[in-house]
TrEMBL record, chain B:
One of its GO terms (molecular function) is kinase activity. Residues 40-127 form the DAGKc domain. Pfam families: DAGK_cat (PF00781). InterPro entries: ATP-NAD_kinase_N, Diacylglycerol_kinase_cat_dom, NAD/diacylglycerol_kinase_sf. This is DAGKc domain-containing protein. It comes from the Bacteria.
């Protein structure tokens, strides 16, 4: 599933592995893989990958994103957002393209192309 | 003019033949120059500064190993003179990563003179080329003043400027042309090993322009192999400050 973490490291991206906690305003202009814990805010113009074990308590903004872990906070993605079956989002989602796998949990509002709808837990 | 700085150890008899070959090859290539022989009481940086002040020096060549380069790195960075290396003996990681073969073969690379301006890392006001390794300790990292990274447990921290994986160390290449250092954090597992080598997921990599590392207890870090003791390590990067002669097989 996640095979981009090595690539992220090779291409000057960031990897926050399991066992590492990040607190504060994290900003990157490259690809980011998060497998650990983050609180505060996460901002990247690149691709964000949130691993199954990741716990994010932060407002998140990314160019594109693939989420398998937990995000407690608003999620803003300018491109495509993939929510995998193990993902859980407690917050509002804004994305241009959204893919939700069966089993993914969303509690928040979803906005696409400026149209807002209330999404119940899936 | 080229200034050749011979480290004290290369003046040992076992390097006599190789040095002779080097000197002959440099003469053939027309790049022979002034030779400075370092000794116990002779500081390389003071001598080079004097020579540069007199004028005419365009290139300083370290004849020796990483320790030789470390002795002259500040003076070549400050004076903006080109640095070359003729690697001799063990501990030549910097030369390897810059694509410089050992001994006589390095003379041809010097003559070809492919010069790259590379970044230097700085820790506690001291420059380094490859990286700094901080041993396992309870620590906290403040990144670019914006966020804090805390390893949950005792973790080793490496801050890399120039790095390529080999049979001993794994990880992505750290490019000294990108204006950033890579902070690489490895967390010790409950079994006493380091998860990094067992799983790529155990390794955190964060590219940064500046960072501060604080350890709870004093540790001995290795800066390009040189021990540095302390609990506070303040890192920054000086972009493209080192002009170095590189070979085609350089890693970046």
């Amino acid at each position: 599933m996640f095979n981009k973490d090595q690539e992220a490291g090779k291409n000057g991206g960031t990897i926050i592995a399991q066992g590492v906690k990040v607190e504060g305003d994290f900003v990157s202009d490259g690809n980011v893989v998060i497998e650990g814990e983050v609180s505060g805010s996460v901002k990247t113009s690149g691709f964000l990958e949130v691993g199954e074990a990741a716990k994010i308590k932060a407002s998140v903004s990314a160019g594109e994103a693939l989420v398998a872990g937990e995000v407690l906070g608003n999620l803003t993605v300018s491109g495509k957002l993939d929510l995998l079956e193990t993902s859980r989002v407690e917050g509002d989602i804004e994305a241009s393209i959204l893919s939700v796998a069966p089993g993914a949990k969303i509690n928040g509002q979803i906005t696409m192309n400026g149209k807002r709808s209330v999404e119940p837990a899936v | 003019m080229y200034l050749y700085v011979y480290d004290a150890f290369v003046q040992d008899r076992r390097y006599e033949k190789e040095l002779q070959k080097v000197e002959n090859r440099l003469t053939d290539l027309g790049i022979a120059g002034k030779i400075v022989r370092l000794g116990l009481f002779r500081r390389a940086d003071e001598f080079i500064r004097d020579e540069v002040r007199r004028g005419g020096i365009t290139t300083v060549v370290a004849v020796g190993n990483d320790a030789t380069v470390r002795q002259i790195i500040d003076v070549v960075a400050d004076t903006k003179i080109v640095l070359g290396i003729i690697p001799l003996g063990p501990e030549n990681r910097i030369a390897n990563l810059l694509g410089l073969p050992e001994g006589e073969a390095a003379c041809d690379i010097l003559s070809a003179r492919i010069v790259e301006a590379i970044d230097a890392g700085v820790v506690n006001n001291k420059r380094f080329v490859c990286g700094v390794s901080i041993p396992a300790a309870k620590s906290e990292i403040t990144c670019e003043g914006n966020y804090r990274v805390t390893p949950q447990g005792r973790g080793t921290i490496e801050v890399r400027n120039l790095f390529a994986p080999d049979e001993k160390e794994k990880g992505p290449i750290s490019n000294p042309l990108d204006g950033r250092l890579e902070a690489v954090i490895q967390i010790a597992t409950a079994g006493g090993g380091f998860s990094f080598w067992k799983s790529v997921r155990g390794e955190s990599i964060i590219p940064l322009r500046s960072l501060e590392v604080r350890t709870q207890e004093p540790v001995t870090a290795l800066m390009d192999g040189v021990p540095v003791e302390g609990t506070r390590f303040d890192f920054s990067v000086e972009e493209k400050i080192l002009k170095v002669i590189t070979g085609k097989s350089r890693v970046f």
